[in-house]
UniProtKB/TrEMBL annotation, chain A:
UniProt cross-references to InterPro entries, sorted A to Z: Brix, BRX1
Cellular component GO terms, alphabetical: nucleolus
Composition skew (Basic and acidic residues), residue ranges: 29-41
Protein name: Ribosome biogenesis protein BRX1 homolog
PANTHER family in UniProt: RIBOSOME BIOGENESIS PROTEIN BRIX, RIBOSOME BIOGENESIS PROTEIN BRX1 HOMOLOG
SUPFAM superfamilies according to UniProt: Class II aaRS ABD-related
Span of domain Brix: 57-246
TrEMBL record, chain B:
Location relative to the cell: Nucleus, Nucleolus
Protein name: rRNA-processing protein EBP2
Biased composition regions of type Basic and acidic residues, renumbered to the chain: 221-232
Gene Ontology, cellular component aspect: nuclear periphery; nucleolus; preribosome, large subunit precursor
Pfam family, one: Ebp2
Region (Disordered): 1-32, 221-317
Comp. bias intervals (Acidic residues): 9-32
Predominant localisation class: nucleus
Record-linked InterPro entries: Ebp2
Biological process, per Gene Ontology: ribosomal large subunit biogenesis; rRNA processing
Protein family: Belongs to the EBP2 family.
Keywords, sorted A to Z: Coiled coil, Nucleus, Ribosome biogenesis
């Protein structure tokens, strides 16, 4: 795409950017280009807008270093979904956050979505209105990208979305601020040069379990049959600031525990459980050891002792007399005796 | 740091002067405590450190001001936003159940319910927005010949389609396999029944033939198949004849059923002198054959070469 100067006044010369286009279409031409399709190869015509682009909303979508593949893909998906977005290189971690404001100014953007990854695990998202406006920091969870095979829907690249909000957004002032911020950030301006004039998908923001759930559906039929396109993620609000990437805090979410604290709590709980088990084991050991007594004296030893009369002790000093053997060993056998007789 | 004092019973009052003991919090030095006591911050009683309850900022005024400051009053056609509750749950209505959630929270852990909630919210938006869009002249339907770049490439859509088709196929296969198994079971049952029936028929036929051979029945009814003969004309005769035969016949019948036509069947195989001396089952050819069928496959398949051959080959290799 060649860079060219946008004329102030909002002419929409976007038709010159058609890929492989062999002609220049006028703004007044209808989006249907049947004749060209039939004669030449199928060209992808540039998105045609039929009016003046007035709502100059530009969103800068970029990240810090250290994001993982899922975050990167989600960022790219957001850029695909939002034709009024701009990309930028990764920001170095050394720079402070207010540098982002300067980057926005350089790129001539008035909104910013900034992804920050900490510890290669936790993803934080800043949504900010760049020069003076409010900004919000979220913790992002449950990311699913466009490329997942379960997301079967598809939409035009750069078509304008419908935005759907939960009525809970009107109940609290901080949610009202968030709603306004999301509306301005995510809605594609009408007659944006890169936008398609059709409305064929809807972004859903729902508040549930103190978190904001984001979904993207394709409108299949006029009777509101929907298919999910993706991406999808869950935002957990941390703080709302009055300024862009800084400034006084307007709102702090009382139910938010940082992911570190969350992990710490889990570990502590596990440790406490282990300690409990050990204590119980030790107690049991003590119990078993304590009840053992050394049985040296048998209490029941003299139950069966019956006292007997004392007999005088006779000590034999002389050897006893030998016994008189009555048997005649020298007798002959009976047969011999018979024989003798 | 906040020092919270609580009242104690009268017994303990004498032991407390407002100075904490050593084994408690060592952050406060004695001098500091003395100062605090002098200033009157510490009161008699047990002084315990308590964490200050964290105040979470909720600057409602600030938020409202901020909102007023940065909101852009754009026409609806620019923003295209809607706020609505989920649409009616058609399935629930059809089943007659009450919808699970009116305004309260959907259970976030119940995936299906939660996603259906989001889906219905989007549906409600679409239903409300379509007339508005047509009013503003914003088209929603893409004409058939409008070719434009899609968010997902054609390749990606192909992959998705393939995956869906493969899932469908797997499901079908498993269904077919289940059905086949069921059929086989049923078929087997039916087959067994048919075979038994046939065997029974054969048995009956054989018994009736033998009966006829033995002269017990002189009718050849069994040859005609399963036709039932009308017995009215000769019923009286038969009755008389049957009456004579019924008595001993039942016993005879039973005995014939058990031992009939061929002698006793149960005590056939006994190892007696007669059975031992009976050499009628001896076939000299079979007994003296010495495995004549071994060479059918080919000589060397199972044969192991002799010792000398093995020695020779071993020394060579």
């Amino acid at each position: 795409m060649s860079a060219f100067k946008r004329k102030r006044g909002g002419q929409a010369p976007g038709n010159k950017k058609a890929k492989k286009a062999k002609f220049v279409a006028d703004t007044s031409e209808a989006p249907k280009e049947n004749e060209q399709e039939k004669t030449h190869e199928i060209t992808v015509p540039a998105p045609v807008s039929q009016g003046k682009w007035k709502n100059k909303e530009r969103v800068l979508i970029f990240s810090s270093r250290g994001i993982n593949y899922r975050t990167r893909h989600m960022m790219q998906d957001l850029r695909t979904m939002m034709p009024h977005s701009k990309a930028d290189t990764k920001m170095d971690r050394k720079d402070k956050l207010f540098v982002v404001n300067e980057v926005c100014e350089i790129k001539n953007c008035n909104k910013c979505i900034f992804f920050e990854a900490k510890k290669k695990q936790d993803l934080y998202m800043w949504v900010a209105n760049s020069p003076h406006g409010p900004s919000a920091k979220f913790l992002v969870q449950n990311i699913h990208t466009l490329a997942e095979l379960k997301m079967t829907g598809n939409c035009l690249k750069g078509s304008r979305p419908l935005l759907s909000f939960d009525p809970k957004f009107d109940s609290e002032p901080h949610f009202a601020v968030l709603k306004e911020l999301f509306t301005q950030t995510f809605s594609t301006p009408r007659y944006h040069p890169k936008s398609q004039p059709f409305v064929d998908h809807v972004f859903t923001f729902t508040i549930n379990d103190d978190r904001i759930w984001f979904r993207n559906y394709q409108i299949m039929e006029e009777d509101a049959a929907l298919v999910e396109i993706g991406p999808r993620f869950v935002l957990n609000l941390i703080k709302v600031f009055q300024g862009s990437f800084g400034g006084p805090t307007l709102f702090e979410n009382p139910n938010f525990t940082s992911p570190n604290m969350h992990r710490r709590q889990i570990r502590l709980a596990a440790a406490a459980r282990v300690r409990e088990k050990q204590m119980v084991k030790e107690l049991q050991k003590l119990k078993r050891a304590g009840t053992k007594e050394d049985v040296t004296i048998d209490v029941t030893a003299d139950v069966f002792l019956t006292p007997a009369d004392e007999t005088p002790v006779l000590i034999q000093t002389e050897a006893p007399e030998p016994k008189v053997v009555k048997k005649n060993k020298h007798k002959a056998f009976k047969r011999q005796r018979m024989a003798r007789k | 740091m906040i020092i919270d004092s609580s009242t104690m019973e009268s017994e303990d009052e004498e032991s407390l002067l407002g100075q904490e003991s050593e084994d408690e919090n060592s952050e406060l030095s004695d001098s500091e405590l003395q100062e605090a006591f002098a200033k009157g911050w510490l009161k008699p009683g047990m002084n315990v450190l308590v964490d200050k309850t964290k105040k979470h900022v909720n600057n409602v005024e600030g938020l409202k001001q901020c909102l007023a400051g940065f909101r852009k009053d754009l026409p609806w056609a620019e923003r295209l936003d809607m706020t609505n509750l989920p649409a009616e749950d058609v399935i629930y209505k059809a089943e007659g159940k009450k919808p699970a959630v009116k305004i309260g929270d959907v259970n976030p852990d119940d995936d299906f319910q939660r996603e259906m909630f989001f889906y219905r919210q989007a549906q409600a938006t679409v239903l409300d927005a379509l007339p508005l869009l047509s009013k503003h002249g914003i088209p929603t339907k893409r004409p058939d010949d409008y070719f434009a770049e899609m968010a997902k490439s054609d390749q990606q859509m192909q992959k998705i389609r393939k995956k869906l088709i493969s899932k469908h196929l797997i499901l079908e296969k498993s269904e077919k396999a289940k059905k086949l198994r069921e059929q086989r079971k049923f078929g087997k049952k039916v087959q067994v029944e048919v075979i038994q029936k046939r065997h029974k028929e054969k048995r009956d036929m054989m018994t009736s033939v033998k009966k006829f051979q033995k002269g017990m029945t002189d009718k050849l009814d069994f040859l005609d198949g399963d036709q039932k003969k009308p017995r009215e004309p000769s019923q009286a005769q038969n009755k008389v004849a049957k009456d004579n035969k019924k008595g001993p016949n039942a016993k005879r019948k039973y005995k014939d059923q058990r031992f009939g036509f061929g002698g006793k069947k149960k005590g056939k195989k006994w190892n007696t002198k007669e059975s031992h001396n009976d050499v009628s089952g001896f076939r000299a050819k079979v007994a003296n054959a010495k495995g004549a069928k071994k060479g059918a496959k080919g000589g060397k398949q199972n044969k192991r070469p002799g010792k000398s051959v093995r020695k020779k080959t071993k020394s060579r290799s």
